[in-house]
């Protein structure tokens, strides 16, 4: 019986989400370099309970049991990625197809193989929806070869110090650092890794950390696996804290850079308006809705564009348009209509000279992220972006706008001498 490859819209969406998450997190791959399939499955069960993400059917196990080992592993662990460590040197298309048809999710090819072997393997991998990991073991110039492989389209590169090399005192650390800096695709690392050395490879930027003997030979494979995953979470927490501190630092910069004339112009326009309409797309829209709710608590006649009960925009009304780029078509269209109707527009954007900015009567500039050097922190590298990673997809603008608008609410509370008790009287009571 063969493991069938499902192809449907839902599978594609789920797979896309899995791939996105893989690029954001570190992956623990357990190398089952054993020769007994029952023993391998027993250890894999313990490792899976401990939190291992990928299970590798090692080369010795495949040589002993054949592709049956891959198939049995996939049947037993359908929720885990199964890596077939074939170390293919020739006939890349044939061997990748064999592994894929037996349930492999990732197949390893040797980096010393001919380019055609690797390209043929990639072509078949695309057909079956599997990934190709190229092992640099035996490659003399690893950085040069890694760059070549990236151009070919391989999915992962493995910096690997073999058992015989380890016996000579060699380590993958030096090569790992160079390769991580040279390519943008995820880099795996293998070669005698354990609880003592894993923190270093995390620091050097490895995405996939392959552990063999430290788990398979451990007295308690499940507990050892769990301790390794705990090391990963130490890095995750550091990343979260760094992101939070960076966001706060950015908001501090925005607060210091606010221009009095812009803020005053916005507040004057709000106080002088008959009705206030707020419009933003996506996350900016959520920020706008939060602001509208607070304005309602302060007795403003306020509406959110797009809601079914939103009335017509008329002369003397105000549109507060929120768009980081200032080019969101629907927002620009709304601003044009507001102007034609004889109303005013306040634009909250990162770009004063954008289309929206030029249409507006008042522009409040809220800087978002800006291009800088290639990022050096872990998650930034994994997102493969040329922006300094603080928060994804323009979130800095939205976070900063949210805090700025809360500041406007504080000002209006003081201006109209409203207390929280006053505002709570208008808070929703049917929720």
Automatic annotation (TrEMBL):
EC number(s) on file: 4.1.2.43
Pfam families xrefs: OMPdecase, SIS
Keyword Lyase listed: yes
GO BP terms, alphabetized: 'de novo' pyrimidine nucleobase biosynthetic process; carbohydrate derivative metabolic process; formaldehyde assimilation via ribulose monophosphate cycle; L-ascorbic acid catabolic process
Domain SIS, residue spans: 266-418
Superkingdom of the organism of origin: Archaea
Catalytic activity: D-ribulose 5-phosphate + formaldehyde = D-arabino-hex-3-ulose 6-phosphate
UniProt-listed SUPFAM superfamilies: Ribulose-phoshate binding barrel, SIS domain
Signal peptide residues on this chain, from the entry's feature table: none
Record keywords, A-Z: Carbohydrate metabolism, Lyase
Transmembrane segments: none
GO molecular function: 3-dehydro-L-gulonate-6-phosphate decarboxylase activity; carbohydrate derivative binding; hexulose-6-phosphate synthase activity; isomerase activity; orotidine-5'-phosphate decarboxylase activity
Family membership: Belongs to the HPS/KGPDC family. HPS subfamily. Belongs to the SIS family. PHI subfamily.
NCBIfam families: RuMP_HxlA, RuMP_HxlAB, RuMP_HxlB
Protein name: 3-hexulose-6-phosphate synthase
Provenance organism: Thermococcus paralvinellae
């Amino acid at each position: 019986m063969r493991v069938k490859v499902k192809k449907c819209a839902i599978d594609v969406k789920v797979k896309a989400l899995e791939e996105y998450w893989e690029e954001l997190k570190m992956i623990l791959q357990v190398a089952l370099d054993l020769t007994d399939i029952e023993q391998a499955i027993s250890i894999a069960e313990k490792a899976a309970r401990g939190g291992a993400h990928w299970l590798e059917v090692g080369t010795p196990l495949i040589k002993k049991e054949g592709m049956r080992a891959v198939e049995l592993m996939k049947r037993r662990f359908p929720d885990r990625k199964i890596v077939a460590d074939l170390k293919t040197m020739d006939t890349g298309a044939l061997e990748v197809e064999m592994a894929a048809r037996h349930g492999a999710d990732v197949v390893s090819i040797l980096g010393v193989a001919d380019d055609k072997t690797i390209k043929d393997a990639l072509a078949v991998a695309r057909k079956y929806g599997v990934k190709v990991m190229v092992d640099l073991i035996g490659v003399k110039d690893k950085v040069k070869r890694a760059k070549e492989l990236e151009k070919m389209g391989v999915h992962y590169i493995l910096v690997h110090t073999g058992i015989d090399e380890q016996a000579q005192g060699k380590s993958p650390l030096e090569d790992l650092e160079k390769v991580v800096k040279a390519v943008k695709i995820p880099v795996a690392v293998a070669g005698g890794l354990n609880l003592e050395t894993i923190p270093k490879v995390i620091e050097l930027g490895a995405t996939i950390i392959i552990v063999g003997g430290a788990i398979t030979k451990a007295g308690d494979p499940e507990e050892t696996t769990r301790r390794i995953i705990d090391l990963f979470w130490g890095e995750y927490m550091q990343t979260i804290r760094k992101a939070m501190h960076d966001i706060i630092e950015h908001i501090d910069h925005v607060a210091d850079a606010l221009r009095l004339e812009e803020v005053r112009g916005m507040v004057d326009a709000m106080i002088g308006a008959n009705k206030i309409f707020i419009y933003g797309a996506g996350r900016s829209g959520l920020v706008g809705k939060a602001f509208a709710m607070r304005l309602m608590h302060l007795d403003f006649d306020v509406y959110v564009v797009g809601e079914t009960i939103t009335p017509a925009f008329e002369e003397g009304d105000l549109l507060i348009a929120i768009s980081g780029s200032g080019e969101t078509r629907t927002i620009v269209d709304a601003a044009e209509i507001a102007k034609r109707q004889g109303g005013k527009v306040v634009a909250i954007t990162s770009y004063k000279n954008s289309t929206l900015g030029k249409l507006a009567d008042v522009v409040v500039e809220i800087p978002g992220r800006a291009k800088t050097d290639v990022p050096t922190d872990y998650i930034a590298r994994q997102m493969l972006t040329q922006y300094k990673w603080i928060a994804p997809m323009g979130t800095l603008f939205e976070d900063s706008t949210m805090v700025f608008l809360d500041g406007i609410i504080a000002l209006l509370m003081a201006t109209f001498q409203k207390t929280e008790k006053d505002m709570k009287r208008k808070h929703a009571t049917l929720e």
